[in-house]
Amino acid sequence: MFCTFSDPSHWHELDKDTHCCDGSNQSPININSKDAICAKLDPIKYIPKHRKEISGNLEINGHGASLAFFKNNRLVTKNMPFIDAQYVLHSIHFHSPSEHLVNGKHFDGELHLVHYKKRYRSVGAAVGKEDGLAVVGVFLEVTGESEDNAFNRFVDGVAKLKGDGTEKVSLDPRELLLMNNDYYTYKGSLTTPPCSESVRWVVMDLPVLTTADRLNVLKNVPVSGGEPLSVDTNVRPAQPVNGRPIYVVC
Question: Apex CA 230: angle with CA 167 and CA 100, to 5°?
Fold first, then answer.
């Protein structure tokens, strides 16, 4: 799924034969709230409805830390905007600063909750389909407090990781959606090569609050060049909107 250039600002220069990062519906973008179109959209809700933690393996993958949920432990939602189908929550990973901007402003970080359309049965099979993927973006904002939610359990797992090892982590991803009916949405792409334009983006408006110390745990994770994330970023620059409609929940 990933190509060879490590610098996100140069991915558009990759060989066109690889179909990497070339297109008119690329992500991330700068979301201008004044241009967003008001729409009546459902909140993001998962099945089963009862609240409980789910488990997966956390590892360092060259682009940061990623938590992949066990197959028999995944949540499903049928509330992705403009799509009447079920999507399976596959994994969570992290970017710092945020990849998306709102009114020209980066947040301190951004979590991506990656989903694939259930009928395609895996991320690999879904990535080439126009409606294959849905990603929920959750902003992180540094303050003097750290809310006791799934993000802290994600960070605690990262702190225990060593080298190429994995760490079992249990958390409730629903705790990250502080207002599940307050979001922006648009049609875009993956933000790493091949940047396939197969993603329905849902960008939550309300950020998760955390502390600088907890954010630094994630920023110290080594990426592909061996440098920590704080030095060798995993953030792709904002891409042209190209007239795409960006919707906001009324």
Answer: 90
